[in-house]
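Margin note from the TA: students keep mixing up input and output lines. Inputs are the sequences; the output is the structure of the whole complex. Example:
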Amino acid sequence: MSLQLVLFIVFGTVSAVSSVLMITRRDIVVSALFLILNLASLAGLYLILNAQFIAVVQVIIYAGAIMVLFLFVIMLLRPENEKKFLEANPSIKIFAFIIGAVIFLQLAYLIFFSGPDNLNNASVAASVKAGTIEEIGKQLYTNYILPFEAAGFLLLAATIGALVLAKKKFE
Amino acid sequence: MEIPIEYYLLLSAFMFIVGVVGVLTRRNAIIVFMSIELMLNSANLTMVAYSSFLGNSVGQLFVFFVMTVAAAEAAIGLAIIIAMFRNKKTLNIDEINILKW
């Protein structure tokens, strides 16, 4: 077993288990903390995949900014806890599990039997080069400048929208 | 690149399904919202895996844009949840059914 495989198993197990725990815990703060664990272990997976810039951005934006916003709103509202998992209307939950199993089998079939079989793996050097901030920045400011500007505009609109929505009263 | 890409895709599919089940089963608006974030992240994992295996940085660029949209979505969604809680004093999505036909 190489170090890469060991790290993949560790981070993959942590992310899978913490995602399951996130949707089954009753206390919403515990749920949010498990989501943070899940996002942090995803950053580790990105590092194994040589995506250094995305890994750092994942920790800063997701595990940092977005989840702080979530925890802030949870602490602000303090909603009551739900009933125990699988106690309130179990029929819709069985339905949801069946739907989930069917979609998962579909996706597994697609992944194993109908994926591109001539995926010519890039060399490690090419993979490392693709993940550097230099390469991403070069693409971002030349070929993808219009989506970049649109993303900036979207963030501005979201900021103004959040302010207007969360304000006390319209005047 | 000794780990086959199928492992990453399978992990990503599993996380996506957990997100779907979370959206369908939980009744708390904030947890539904966090499940949506989980699904966005599993899609990100797929894109980073393919980008790394193909040696092409455009996939990671799209992850960057997805993160932008997720940040905007989190800000707007939580503002909507605050406004909703102020009016109905609940976060249970079964009780927030004003637009239900």
